[in-house]
Amino acid sequence: IAVRAKLKVKLCRSKKGSRWSPDENGLNEIKILNDTIKYLREKGAAGEQQMLPTTIAYNTLMSTWAHLSRIHPNGPLEAEKVLQHMIFLKDRGSDEVAPDALSYLIVMRCWMNSDQPNRGHRVEWWLSKQWKDYEFEGRDKLIPTTDAYNVGIRTYERMTEPQKAQRLLSDLIRRSDLDQSGKLKPNSESFASVIRAWLVVADTGSKDALE
Hints:
Elements: H1 2-13, H2 27-45, H3 55-68, H4 75-91, H5 101-113, H6 119-137, H7 146-158, H8 162-178, H9 188-202, H10 207-210
Helix pairs in contact: 1-3, 2-3, 3-4, 3-5, 4-5, 5-6, 5-7, 6-7, 7-8, 7-9, 8-9
């Protein structure tokens, strides 16, 4: 279902599909996923514990919103609602839907894929919240990864804000020096995105950006 929604978004972006028709813009798939999760929760509440939806089900729903965020301005906010609901359920004892690092990463991708003017700020906000939640809960599955930082860096690259992209890279480097898990090491993408962000400004004639 999620893959089908992704393909529909691709068609809409190529103008071979209608952004206004739920049959063509992926919203029907969102409804199917929501209805499925609701059905599974009802079965679980009725005593069939093995039917309860897990983190994977909610991550799949948010991943679908990540694709739809390319054509639906409300996509990132809808994904945020899903993650906030997961946190609410986990706090009430539903450990099977406890968010993991991927959950936060997907929401960040939603913002990156959107054209919202505040997308960089929201990516950083969720990265900061992920760090706070990890430090509070101590669950290894919550540790932010290099991918999360790269999403933030790419977001600022697309927004032509190299200073902010470089600031995130600096934070990643700083944390990698303290990290024992090996999940926070900057890679070639981390540096390349910052370089590209500066090059866009350099192409306007800025010698400082080129340096």
